[in-house]
Design brief:
The complex is a heterodimer. By secondary structure, chain A is mainly α. Chain A contains 21 helices and no strands. Chain A is globular and about 70 Å long. Chain B has a four-stranded antiparallel β-sheet with strand order 2-5-1-6. A two-stranded antiparallel ribbon of chain B has the order 3-4. In chain B, a hairpin with a 2-residue loop joins strand 3 and strand 4. Classes of the chains: A mainly alpha, B alpha+beta. Chain A: InterPro entries: DUF6596, RNA_pol_sigma-70_dom, RNA_pol_sigma70_r2, RNA_pol_sigma70_r4_t2, RNA_pol_sigma_r2, RNA_pol_sigma_r3/r4-like, WH-like_DNA-bd_sf.
């Protein structure tokens, strides 16, 4: 039996975005007010549930309380009296079946957050905040900006939504094209944040990955002919199918080459492979497609040693051209090391380090350490592991690096 | 809600247009304006004389300073506007994208601030 706090935490992770999305609609696009009433509802639950017991349908309870708070708020501002009736029609009960059939406002919220009238940075920050319930601090850390800067960015974006009257709708078909890129980029970042959390005790935030997948499926049904949407969905499915094998019993990270492949979710992998097929059929050639193709090659190898590294290295070389960036370059180096030997990978990693572009990214010294270890240069490998440990942020990754270092020192 | 659609174009480039091109653009504007009148979005709209005809006024320390200009440092200058009524930003963007000059210059879409009288 879960205690009240964990039930509440789970409700926050899984339902926050949906509740906020609905409240924004009924509060006429007022993001700030919607967030406030939803936070008030969670605060009320924190007080009442331990005393009175957890309601049968926690999400429905939260929605109802948030709605009531929104009604109170509107009553106080008499001008909005007319909308109160409409608001009262939302989530009138806490019944589980009704919660399931409530209209899904998440996609509408996603498209509003990704309106091209907002800056790209604001789009993603707003989506992570409103849709996924990430705190300002967590988003700031993911973007490497100060919480104050990010808070200001969010306030400006919300003000623009209100003053320029950015509509809270899924856009008309003719406006969809210019909006898709931002939406996909946001979904990609939400998934990435869940797949490799930038901070905190847990390595994966499965709830964020699942929310991204759910929205990707909705986007796919909205844009069935869009090759990039299909590619992104394929990429997410192929990665997510490995989730059970990526974390060890002790919560530690298990790298691809040591994963128990029987734990992979075969049905999800097959769905991902089919999505990639249909994306390629639509002529997909973009960055999501290349990444999905890499994930597919991993997914199709029965054992780690069967992996087609030559083809993966070639795909990474393509990705470096499509989306130049130091993290992609690091992945390319790792693939080259597997395809042609660690010394080839190491020279690419050294080039990258000399460029100074990844000065505080723990995976650079971690990758270097691994290559040095494979080349038998033990002392250099030990000092590279120590440098990586000085930068790492999540507990499971720290334990992983510590274990590798211990193994090396014991040799 | 009202939106001001401000049309920016390179004045220098506009001066070099042939007579036929000017006639074509005028025709396009005529069609566009008729369409947004028909659909009920049009409130007003004017073409402006070039910035060479403009005068700038400032009051500093209580004294009036009148100068020639503005001397446009930017590549594109305000050359005209439409004031329209639109449901929301998306509708305003849709109207702005049909302005003929959007293809050669740019159109800034700016909401007009609405003041609501307090009710008691």
């Amino acid at each position: 039996m879960m205690d009240t706090t964990s039930i509440l935490e789970r409700a926050h992770r899984e339902d926050y975005g949906r509740i906020v999305a609905t409240l924004i609609r009924v509060l006429d696009g007022d993001f700030g007010a919607a967030e406030e009433v939803v936070q008030d509802a969670f605060a009320a639950a924190l007080k009442q549930w331990p005393r009175e017991g957890v309601p049968r349908e926690p999400a429905g309870w939260l929605m109802r309380v948030a709605r009531n708070k929104a009604v109170d708020r509107m009553r106080r501002s008499a001008r909005l009296e007319a909308r109160v009736g409409e608001l009262e029609a939302v989530a009138p009960s806490v019944d589980a079946a009704e919660w399931q059939t409530l209209p899904d406002d998440s996609l509408r919220l996603l498209f509003t957050c990704c309106h091209p009238a907002l800056s790209p940075e604001a789009q993603v920050a707003l989506a992570l905040r409103c849709l996924c319930g990430l705190t300002t601090e967590q988003i700031a850390r993911a973007f490497l900006v100060s919480p104050a800067t990010l808070a200001q960015r969010l306030v400006r974006a919300q003000r623009k939504i209100r003053t320029a009257r950015i509509p809270y709708v899924i856009p008309e078909p003719e406006a969809l094209a210019e909006r898709t890129e931002g939406v996909l980029h946001t979904l990609y970042l939400v998934f990435s944040e869940g797949y490799a959390a930038t901070d905190g005790p847990a390595l994966l935030r499965v709830d964020l990955c699942e929310e991204a997948l759910r929205l990707a499926r909705l986007a796919r049904s909205l844009l069935p002919e869009d090759a990039e949407v299909a590619s992104l969905r394929a990429l997410m499915l192929l990665h997510h199918s490995r989730r059970r094998a990526r974390v060890a019993a002790d919560g530690g990270l298990v790298l691809l080459d040591r994963q128990d492949r029987s734990l992979w979710d075969g049905a999800q992998r097959d769905e991902g492979l089919a999505e990639l097929e249909s994306a390629l059929g639509m002529g997909a050639r973009g960055a999501y497609t290349v990444q999905a193709a890499i994930a597919a090659l991993h997914a199709q190898a029965p054992r780690a040693e069967d992996t087609d590294w030559a083809q993966i290295a070639a795909l990474y070389a393509r990705l470096v051209v499509l989306t130049p960036g130091p993290v992609v370059a690091l992945n390319h180096a790792a693939a080259v090391a597997m395809a042609r030997g660690p010394e080839h990978g190491l020279s690419l990693v050294d080039d990258l380090e000399a460029s100074g572009r990844l000065a505080d990214y723990h995976l650079l010294p971690a990758a270097r350490a691994d290559l040095l270890r494979r080349l038998g240069r033990k002392d250099e490998a030990v000092s590279a592991y120590r440098r990586a440990l000085a930068m790492v942020r999540t507990a499971p990754e720290r334990r992983f690096l510590e274990a590798r270092l211990r193994e090396l020192l014991a040799e | 809600m009202k939106y001001l659609l401000m049309i920016y174009e390179n004045e220098k480039a506009a001066e070099t247009l042939s007579e036929a091109d000017v006639q074509r653009v005028m025709g396009e504007y005529g069609t566009f304006e008729a369409a947004i009148k028909q659909s009920g979005h049009f409130i007003s709209g004017e073409e402006l004389e070039p910035t060479a005809a403009a005068t700038t006024v400032r009051i500093r320390d209580g004294k009036r300073l009148t100068t020639d200009g503005p001397f446009a440092e930017t590549r594109e200058q305000l050359g005209g506007f439409f004031l329209v009524e639109a449901r929301d930003l998306d509708e305003a963007i849709g109207i702005a994208s049909r302005i003929p000059s959007a293809r050669s210059g740019s159109v800034e879409v700016r909401p007009v601030r609405e003041f609501t009288m307090p009710q008691d």
